[in-house]
Each structure stands twice: as structure tokens, then as C-alpha cells.
Design goal:
By secondary structure, the protein is an all-alpha fold. The protein has helices at residues 3-21, 30-40, 47-58, 66-84, 101-105, 107-125, 135-149, 154-163, 171-196, 201-228, 231-234, 240-243, 249-253, 255-274, 281-290; strands spanning 94-95, 98-99.
């Protein structure tokens, strides 16, 4: 099986796992569940759960305890996308090639379904206690995931991004936004995989650094694709950064320098991964492919 086929197989496996945990569309709140499920079923790369599971496997992890964390992570990520697309934020009408949640279900339900997914993620995550004999590891993984999601992680980065929308940004502020808005959940994914597999503190910190490097490179590549790709290829509007007068890595340093930085970051991430005693050839190739993606 080549890499592309293997990635497709792993993506489908993650999708099946997600479907098992989705809320039932029944009762008076059935429309809320439908809005949540619409977003969760809309596809996507499932990058974070795959990174989590592959890190877990690399450090010798076995068992089902990883599953609630994979699903919870994807719910947290999807909640952020639903809110990102709202009229008050990016006001996007397409995501993953489909109409965005607020366009299909209305703005109010878009807000509520994002809130509900963030909360439901933790309801799912608590199932991990039923699947592990090592509650200390589960607690540590939950602490990391919660911290990387909140004010000192994804939501903190999102707030700074929103507050400064359309304003000129310094490189240091842009890097803060990228580290928190994008890298934080990738860092959490790789750290959680390592923690639940029983990795030592040094290895967990190495995975955090790899996640950081991958996240920054991933976001800069996103900026690059916004000016070099097409809507058909990406499944979402291109040129929206320029349209919204948004400062990006490309607008600050130029396309050539942005491409060079993606190369530098990816080389450093791969070097750290290669330096670990534990090996996972698929994870290595996945990191390599992610930062050079075309969509």
C-alpha cells in the first residue's frame, strides 16, 4: 500500500470512530444535534486524530483509550471551524467544499452548535476513564488538551486574531496567533498520543516541539495556498486574506521567504522526529506531506 492509500484508509478509520460517538438526532434538541453532526460529517483531513493515533502507536500504545481523545480533539477543532466561519468572524459560506453550518442552519444555530460541540467533546473525552487502567495518564492528557484549547492556546490565539482583523500586525504577534490558533491543537494531539502510550517527559516535550513546528509550517502553507491555489482545489474560497485585508506570513515577508520558512520548519520537525529512538515511518512521511500539501 502506498502512502496515499494508507492515509485514505486511516482517514476512513477515524471517520468510523467519530460516527460511533456522535449525538443522536432525537427529541426537542434534534436540530442542534443535526447541526453538530452536519459539521462533523462534512469530511476533512482528520489530521489531528491521525497524528495523535500515529504518535500513540509509535510509543507502543495499544488499546481503545486513544479513541475518545481522537474524537474529542476533532470535535474541538470542528467547533473552532464553525465559529470561524460565522458572519461575526470570517463570514465564509463554504468549508470543505460544502455550505458552512451557519448558512445551512442559521447563525444562531451555528453559534449554539459550535458551543455544543466544544462541550460534547469533553463528555466524550471522559469516556477514556472507562477504557484505561492508568487514570493518571488520562488526567494528564486531559489537562494538556484543555490548556491547549483555552485562553492559553487555541481560543487565546483566535481572540488576538479577531481583535486585530484587518490591522497591520508585527511578525511577533502573527507568530503568537499561529502558535496558539493553529499549532496548539497539533501540539496537543502529539503530546496526548505520547502521554497515553506511556512516553517519558523528554519524549512528550519533543513531540510538543514537533507539533509546534508542524503547526506553524502548516499555517504558513495555508497562507501560501490562499494566493497560489484555486477554490476547486482547496474546497473553500481563495484570496480571502487579501479581500479581508488580513495580515499573513506571505503579506509580511513575501511568497519566496514564506516558502523558505516552510522548508526550514519542516526540516527541523523531521530532524527531531528522526532523532527519537521510537520510529513510525508513516508518521514521518505524514509530517513531510502535511507541510507541502496543495489543499
Amino acid at each position: 500500500m502506498n502512502f496515499k492509500e494508507e492515509l485514505q484508509k486511516k482517514t476512513e478509520e477515524v471517520q468510523k470512530t467519530i460516527l460511533r460517538y456522535l449525538p443522536k438526532e432525537e427529541g426537542f434538541a434534534s436540530n442542534l444535534a443535526a447541526a453538530m453532526n452536519y459539521s462533523m460529517k462534512a469530511g476533512g483531513k482528520r489530521l489531528r486524530p491521525i497524528l495523535m493515533k500515529e504518535t500513540y502507536a509509535m510509543f507502543g500504545g495499544t488499546g481503545e483509550v486513544i479513541e475518545p481523545f481522537m474524537v474529542g480533539m476533532e470535535m474541538i477543532h470542528t467547533h473552532s471551524l464553525i465559529h470561524d466561519d460565522l458572519p461575526a468572524l470570517d463570514n465564509d459560506e463554504y468549508r470543505r467544499g460544502k455550505k458552512t453550518t451557519h448558512v445551512v442552519f442559521g447563525e444562531a444555530m451555528g453559534i449554539l452548535s459550535g458551543d455544543a460541540l466544544l462541550n460534547y467533546a469533553y463528555e466524550v473525552l471522559f469516556h477514556a476513564f472507562d477504557l484505561s487502567a492508568d487514570n493518571e495518564r488520562v488526567v494528564l492528557a486531559l489537562q494538556i488538551l484543555a490548556a491547549k484549547t483555552g485562553i492559553y492556546g487555541m481560543l487565546g490565539g483566535q481572540s488576538v486574531d479577531v481583535e486585530n482583523d484587518g490591522k497591520p500586525l508585527s511578525l511577533s504577534m502573527l507568530e503568537y496567533i499561529y502558535k496558539n490558533k493553529t499549532s496548539a491543537l497539533i501540539e496537543a494531539s502529539m503530546m496526548v498520543g505520547a502521554i497515553l502510550a506511556g512516553a517519558d517527559d523528554g519524549s512528550i516535550r519533543t513531540m510538543e516541539q514537533i507539533g509546534y513546528l508542524v503547526g506553524i509550517a502548516f499555517q504558513i502553507q495555508d497562507d501560501i495556498l490562499d494566493v497560489t491555489s484555486t477554490s476547486e482545489e482547496l474546497g473553500k474560497p481563495v484570496g480571502s486574506d487579501e479581500k479581508n485585508h488580513k495580515t499573513t506570513y506571505v503579506t509580511l515577508v513575501g511568497l519566496d521567504a514564506a516558502l523558505q520558512e516552510v522548508e526550514r520548519l519542516s526540516r527541523e520537525a523531521l530532524s527531531l522526529l528522526d532523532g527519537l529512538e521510537e520510529k513510525n515511518p508513516f508518521l514521518y512521511q505524514l509530517v513531510e506531506e502535511l507541510v507541502h500539501r496543495r489543499k
